[in-house]
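We modelled the chain as a single entity of 99 amino acids. Its sequence is:
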Amino acid sequence: MTVELALALPAAVAVLAATLSAVQAAAVGVAVPAAAVAGAREAVIAGDEAGIAAATRAAGSGAAVGVGRADGWVEVTVTVDRGWPWGATSASAALPAQG
């Protein structure tokens, strides 16, 4: 192994780690709105607890899920903390409640 390779290898590993972290953060960013929609759909059909369970299944166990009902609408908010440096991602979905 040459000195150049020995110096370049840690930098290559750091770039790979940063890239994988960004891809994972992007995947969570896509999953959170989908989880909010799934939770809202399930809350309308089967109730608030079922909506929370569906959103948590879709977003992952670390997600914070809230359900609110007002003026004939059901709104589900899902928040997931993606960690440093990405921060938290939040999404809401609202559907009309069945009458």
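As a brief sanity check on the tokenised model: The chain has a mean pLDDT of 91. Strands lie at 64-70, 73-81, 88-96.
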